[in-house]
Amino acid sequence: MVSKEVSGRKRKRVTEFAQRAIADLRAQLDKELVAAKERHEKDLAAVRADFEHSAVTAKATFDRELANRDARITQLENSLNAVVRDKNSYSEQAQIRQAERKCFDAPLQLQELEGIREMVNQHADGGVREGGLTEAGFLYLHTIFIQRGRLETTWTVLRKFGYAEDLRSTEAFLSPKFDIPPDCSVELSPPGYQFFTDIFETFDKDQDGALNPSELEEVFGTSPGNPWTSC
């Protein structure tokens, strides 16, 4: 009888010990699960933050590249307008060769020029008109230069027309320095007068002998701004 009671108490103690051990193990597992969940949430938050930061950085980079591309297109358009004397939005053969000489110290050969016109005409709608390059054709040509890794060709054109690395007109281009001896004065030569007369007549679209505000804006479209409106 005593032996059975002792055996029952032992069994009870063993059972209680096992229950406590199981309870302790369950509590430890719960703690570890909570800790693991917290670590997972922290890691997930860090990944989300990194992703959001990367997305913001990528957007900012894209915006800068887009703004730079738009600025470069504008300056290329300005360069074309500076080449085209009659402002009819296309460069005739003689004007293209003159621009090539200005930028690269050598005019294009007629065969090379014909090859350029043929390529632009095949791939750019409206890129060629009356044997010359339109604005669309001019931009397409430089797109091809860039795609083929000839970035320096485009930059050479921009620099020759007074644009710096930030696509702004350089001070040396806007205000070229020249020395005037103390006993001398500066005045326009006859070719200088003719140059300004030609410019005036080109932009005086209504031929009323005066440049209205819209005509003035067009005159200074290739410059940093209209001096009469920026004062």
TrEMBL record:
Signal peptide: none annotated. The keyword Metal-binding applies. Transmembrane segments: none annotated. It comes from Lentinula guzmanii. The keyword Repressor does not apply. This is EF hand associated-domain-containing protein. Residues 191-226 form the EF-hand domain. Keywords: Calcium, Membrane, Metal-binding, Repeat. It is found in: Membrane. One of its GO terms (molecular function) is calcium ion binding. GO terms for cellular component: membrane.
